[in-house]
Design brief:
heterodimer, A: 417 residues, alpha/beta, 8-stranded mixed sheet, 10 helices, 20 strands, B: 91 residues, 4-stranded antiparallel sheet, two-stranded antiparallel ribbon, 1 helix, globular
Chain lengths: 417, 91
């Protein structure tokens, strides 16, 4: 690694008032042709480029990003990482990602602030209890750590939760995945961008894809705001805008794009040292290292690309937060934002070839894509490089909507993602 | 969040309504004749347009009637509202 970050480089740069740090990645103009092009410079896209270069030796590739890297959903999520999914296919996919997360800071030589602070999922009614207990059993059979906590154990693990039996949706217990946690979302994008760039990947920002050129059923290149770029392989990782890109290639996807909101509070002293999610009342909360409460709300129930979201959705989430955590009643919220999430009918992602040669899609992550970033990139890179899926993402093909072999995680996942 | 002019009740808050997704997807006349590809197209594939889209809405917390709407999904501006069975407006 050319510019290795270490305690020594930190000390050395301290002497020059940190004014001589080298740029972590370049800002090149696009070449006329690439071996492969990744559309979308978010975490998943950059990770795909990184693993294409690292594991499949494809160095002549470019990541095209219409805005700035990590400026989409990578910078708009609540940074939760977990792998406690019900079905075998999902468990395999998300735990593959979690295993990469565990060593990612070392691998990238970039502190992504991965913190295995645990994720707790609360049960508020009898059906929740049954579902979550079933899920802990399924998780353990798949080698994923999961334990069931009764109400007292929930209270002990996170004392600020109101476990009184007379609240509207009382806490009847919960599950805990201790290996789960959070990471610094921006750093993930930056770390992958730096790693990929160091291996020769061009990261081209402010470059919007306007069209996909096809010759019969083979892709030939992309029309962009910086001119035409030739390529034989295109990996689309455009999240909420996947359908827009698919339309350029004459494809239709089983996706609906909806705004998903999150918000953060003013920073306070450490009060909650884990992540608590609650499906029934749709509220989840953690605390960032800066001290802000990071709160996730739900999606709007209609298609929209506005990156805003409705006020009543936030209101519903905050009602639930206040019922569960009365201690937060006087907290002020600092910022609220929306990201556009692409939701599949079965709430599972698509990491797949298409019936157009050289066109690959990695989309449909819906409301829970951040946790999968490294695994998604790794498996998508494998799919692009070999023109066939890895066994871990074989189930997540586009053809499942024709065959009916869905990975139905809707409601079966720990929370509505 | 926006206001919707229900064709039966007049202007109400969007939170009173629920969205039924893309409009004018016709249920196949001969379901038994359909191939798997055609079923997939009918059940799952959506235009998911960024721009002007035709969609179905239901006034769930009002008259509970279904109607159609033309809305720009890039800015949530509503262009037209029309009753079920009526011809979609031509822009």
């Amino acid at each position: 690694m050319k510019n290795k970050y270490s305690i020594f480089s930190l000390i050395k740069n301290a002497f020059s008032q940190h004014e001589n740090w080298k740029q972590a990645w370049g800002d090149p103009e696009p070449k006329r042709e690439y071996e492969a092009i990744i559309i979308g410079g978010g975490g998943h896209g950059l990770a795909t480029a990184y693993y294409l270069a690292k594991k499949h030796n494809m160095r002549n590739i470019a990541v095209l990003e219409k805005g700035w890297i990590g400026g989409g959903n990578t910078g708009r999520n609540t940074t939760i990482i977990r792998s406690n999914y019900l079905w075998d296919a999902s468990a395999g996919l998300y735990d593959h990602a979690l295993k990469i997360w565990e060593n990612l800071s070392q691998e990238l030589n970039y502190n992504i602030m991965f913190s295995q602070r645990g994720v707790m999922n609360l049960a508020h009614n009898l059906q929740d209890v049954r579902d979550l207990k079933r899920r802990t059993h399924a998780n353990r059979l798949n080698g994923i750590d999961a334990v069931w906590l009764n109400t007292d154990q929930v209270k002990e693990f996170c004392p600020i939760i109101n476990t009184s039996p007379d609240i509207r949706y009382p806490v009847l217990g919960g599950t805990l995945q201790r290996r789960a946690g959070t990471a610094r979302h921006d750093a993930v994008a930056w770390g992958y961008a730096r790693g990929a760039n160091e291996m020769g990947v061009d990261i081209i920002q402010n470059c919007e894809v306007k069209g996909i050129k096809r010759n019969g059923d083979q892709v030939e290149g992309v029309e962009t705001s910086k001119g035409f770029i030739k390529t034989k392989k295109i990996g689309v990782v455009a999240a909420g805008h996947s359908s827009v890109i698919a339309d350029m290639a004459g494809l239709k996807l089983p996706l609906e794009s909806k705004p998903l909101q999150a918000l953060v509070s003013e920073p306070v002293k450490p009060i909650i040292d884990t992540v608590v999610m609650s499906n029934a009342v749709h509220a989840y909360v953690s605390q960032s290292d800066k001290g802000e409460l990071v709160i996730g709300a739900g999606t709007d129930a209609y298609v929209s690309y506005t990156q805003r979201g409705s006020h009543d959705v936030v209101e519903g989430t905050l009602k639930a937060i206040l019922e569960l955590y009365p201690i937060f009643s006087r907290m002020k919220m600092l910022r609220q934002w929306g990201g556009i999430v692409d939701i599949c009918p079965d709430a599972s992602p698509i990491i797949s070839k298409t019936n157009i040669k050289g066109l690959y899609f990695n989309c449909g992550w819906g409301t829970g894509g951040f946790k999968a970033t490294p695994g998604s990139g790794d498996l998508f890179a494998h799919t692009i490089a070999n023109d066939e899926p890895h066994k871990l993402n074989a189930a997540f093909n586009l053809n499942r909507f024709v065959s009916g072999d869905l990975v139905d995680e809707h409601g079966a996942a720990a929370v509505a993602h | 969040m926006f206001l919707i002019n229900c064709p039966y009740c007049g202007e109400r808050d969007q939170s009173e309504f629920s969205c039924g997704g893309e409009a004018h997807i016709v249920r196949p006349k001969q379901p038994t004749e359909l191939s798997d590809d055609q079923w997939a197209e009918y059940l799952f594939m959506r235009k998911n347009i960024k721009g002007v889209q035709f969609e179905r809405w239901n006034h769930a917390h009002g008259c509970r009637k279904w109607f159609n709407m033309v809305r720009d999904t890039s800015n949530d501006k509503i262009h037209a509202v029309y009753k079920m069975g009526e011809k979609p407006p031509v822009e």
